[in-house]
Design a protein that fits this description.
By secondary structure, the chain is α+β, with helices and mostly antiparallel strands. It folds into two domains: about 1-85, Immunoglobulins (Immunoglobulin-like), CATH 2.60.40; about 90-135. It contains one helix and nine strands, in the order E-E-E-E-E-E-E-H-E-E. It has one helix at about 90-135; strands at about 1-5, 10-20, 20, 35-40, 50, 60-70, 70-80, 140, 145. The protein has a five-stranded antiparallel sheet with strand order 3-2-1-6-7, with no helix packed on it. It has a two-stranded antiparallel ribbon with strand order 4-5. Strand 1 and strand 2 (about 10-20) form a beta hairpin. The longest helix has about 45 residues, at about 90-135. It is rod-shaped, with a radius of gyration of 40 Å. It starts with a strand and ends in a 10-residue tail after the last strand.
């Protein structure tokens, strides 16, 4: 039995199976290590070729040739290659969508913390300035500000 998959126009060997063995030596270099003939269904009349790591250059016509003793058959088919964007794992798409939002939230949080730290420093400096200016009003035991009211005569 012989099963061959070929690419026109020069009949480049995509995959060849002869005498119970894959004939890797006759395979075109661009298909080495990327094809597999699924032999389980040959008895049912199905000759399936699996191509891994499909490329845009794989698009186009293929011919499958089958011969067993005096019986032979040949079928031509067309392979269409779609945009590989749709082959991306959905989990990867989620990461691509969520990661920028997460990074933006982290950046906003860091900016907020920096501003908060800066404002606390300014507030401390202002409190110290007030303490120096109004030192007599400051109650050091209770850490409170005492307000002193003076009455002025109304004229």
């Amino acid at each position: 039995m012989e099963v061959g998959w070929y690419r026109p126009p020069f009949s480049r060997v995509v995959h060849l199976y002869r005498n119970g063995k894959d004939q890797d030596g006759e395979q075109a270099p661009e298909y080495r290590g990327r094809t597999e003939l699924l032999k389980e269904t040959i008895g049912e009349g199905k000759v399936t070729l699996r191509i891994r790591k499909v490329r845009f250059s794989d698009e186009g016509g293929f011919t499958c040739f089958f011969r067993d003793h005096s019986y032979q058959e040949e079928v031509a088919m067309e392979l269409k290659v779609e945009d590989p964007f749709y082959w991306i794992n959905p989990g990867v798409l989620v990461v691509i969508a969520v990661l920028p939002v997460l990074l933006l939230q982290i950046a906003v949080g860091l900016v907020f913390l920096c501003l908060q730290h800066r404002l606390r420093g300014k507030l401390r400096a202002e409190i110290e300035n007030l303490h120096r200016t109004f030192g007599k009003c400051w109650d050091t035991q209770h850490s409170q500000v005492s307000l002193m009211f003076h009455s002025f005569p109304v004229t």
